[in-house]
Amino acid sequence: MDTIGTFVDEGTLQLHSPLVTFWPEVTGHPLAQVTARGLLHVSPSAKLHSS
Q: Which domain of life is it from (predicted)?
């Protein structure tokens, strides 16, 4: 199984790209504009709320 670092090294995952770039199901949701880097920096104790 590959790790996130492997995907970044191979160019498959670009941390500065919005999630919608590679996860089309979030289109129209505020999460669509979050970057992969931003998602990785979310605290494990953070509560995500949908509006």
A: Bacteria
Predicted model pTM: 0.61
pLDDT digits (tens, 9 = 90+) for 1-51: 568 889 889 998 899 999 999 889 999 999 899 998 988 886 666 666 555
**CA separation, residue 5 to residues 1, 14, 26, 45 (Å):** 12, 10, 23, 23
Residues 14/36, Cβ–Cβ less than 8 Å: yes
Round to whole Å and give the CA distance between 36 and 29. 15
